[in-house]
Specification:
17 strands; alpha+beta
């Protein structure tokens, strides 16, 4: 009987000790550490006042600059300060801001290591509509595990943070731009007539309706390789342009769209669209599919 009481007493003591240790453990885990901060890279209340985002990619002393400029309520991408702009996808810009406003645990890195991880880097500056800088972030290398990224804030302190920003840290226009520029437009629009080069105008009727359906299908699925704002300069170098083709489209709302297609001395093409007032780079295969629909 006494032995049973002794066992019960020991059990109670173990339970009490376990409870105390659990409380101590929880307190230790929730207590903030001096070198770890939890905060966001952008104040959510500032989003509506952002007028420009400047993203600079630096690799081996070479730089590429993307500017996302707000015109009205829409952001447009401009590359290397050229005048040609491309409309940014709305869901992409919203996702970009959502990544910046989420709080992350940022761990302070030793001052001795502050320059090691930033030889190749991406700088993001967010500008207020009054032209002041709301936030400036320098993104450096990924850690050896590939899970975290080194970043530097305007204070020059270096932190390591979960890499939730990787999608926006690549010098690829298709992250921001719809590379099927006619797809959305032709959902609510039809083509009623066209001319190809100097040929006679072809009008949509019962006999040609199937042809026009195919043209709309091919243009909707027409995928660009890249934006090409440098084209306006390149096209002046006639030695690189082998020939030019022109397509004029007339829509159901009496809108006229000009497509100018330039064959380079490579296998690629440049296409200018008056609908977007922009130049794109397209593959020979994609161009052939579109042209076949018109012939």
């Amino acid at each position: 009987m006494n032995r049973i009481k002794t066992i019960k007493t020991e059990t109670k003591i173990l339970l009490i000790i376990t409870g105390i240790l659990l409380i101590i453990s929880l307190n230790l885990n929730t207590k903030p550490k001096n070198n770890v901060l939890s905060f966001s890279l952008l104040n959510e209340n500032d989003i509506d006042y952002i007028s420009k985002i400047e993203i600079t990619f630096t690799e081996d002393d070479n730089q590429l600059v993307y500017e996302l400029v707000k015109i009205g309520e829409i952001f447009f991408l401009r590359k290397n300060n050229l005048n040609v702009v491309y409309e940014v996808k709305q869901n992409t810009i919203e996702n970009f801001f959502s990544k910046l406003v989420v709080k992350n645990n940022l761990q302070l890195v030793s001052e001795k290591m502050k320059d090691i991880f930033f030889k190749n880097h991406i700088s993001i500056k967010l500008f207020h509509e009054n032209k002041t800088i709301l936030s400036e972030i320098l993104f450096g290398d990924i850690d050896v595990l590939g899970l975290n990224r080194y970043l530097k804030l305007s204070s020059e302190r270096v932190y390591i943070s979960p890499d939730r920003y990787a999608d926006f840290l690549k010098p690829k226009a298709n992250i921001w731009i719809d590379m099927q520029p006619f797809k959305e437009y032709l959902r609510n629009q039809t083509i009623q007539a066209y001319t190809l080069n100097d040929n006679a105008m072809v009008i949509k009727n019962n006999e040609t309706s199937k042809k026009f359906e195919n043209i709309e299908t091919q243009l909707s699925s027409f995928y660009m390789l890249d934006i090409f704002p440098e084209s306006s300069t390149l096209l002046q170098q006639s030695t690189q342009v082998l020939n030019k083709m022109s397509i004029i489209l007339m829509t159901g709302t009496n809108e006229t769209i000009h497509l100018d297609i330039y064959k380079l001395d490579t296998t690629d093409y440049i296409i200018f669209s008056s609908l977007h007032n922009a130049y794109y780079l397209a593959s020979e295969y994609a161009i052939k599919k579109v042209l076949d629909a018109f012939e």
